[in-house]
Amino acid sequence: MRIFVIEFYNMDITTAPVLLTAGAIKELKRLMSEESFDQKNVLRVGVKGGGCSGMSYVLGFDEPAEDDSTYDIEGIPVAMKKSHGIYLYGMEIDFQDGLNARGFTFQNPNASSTCGCGTSFAV
């Protein structure tokens, strides 16, 4: 699997700092194929302050901003603030569709601790 970053203006090519599993790719493409999906949007991956461990993950569809790094991962356009890479480099995003759990999960090698629900972490 090859992963590229495409900057809006200078066309740099680089490896994306996050990985999407086959399950995550399948679910994201399903969501993007819905009739209500705005084709201008990209998948935003990031962090924000808050949560029980100090930082929470951001994962959702949004319009790209001028200061984003943008990537194409298996046909999914991804945007991330450049400053978030230090917290997310090497993180794996998966989608679970089981009886006990359903949703996106995050495996972050940079997290020193995580909360019980897995949506917030500390570095």
Automatic annotation (TrEMBL):
One Pfam family recorded for the sequence: Fe-S_biosyn
GO molecular function terms listed in the Swiss-Prot or TrEMBL record: 2 iron, 2 sulfur cluster binding
Gene Ontology terms: biological process: iron-sulfur cluster assembly
Alphabetical list of InterPro entries matching this protein:
ATAP (IPR016092), ATAP_core_dom (IPR000361), FeS_cluster_insertion_CS (IPR017870), HesB-like_dom_sf (IPR035903), IscA_plant_cyanobact (IPR031108)
PROSITE patterns from the entry?
A: HESB (PS01152)
Q: Which residues form the Core domain?
A: 20-118
Tell me what organism the protein belongs to: Chitinophaga skermanii
The protein here is known as Iron-sulfur cluster assembly protein
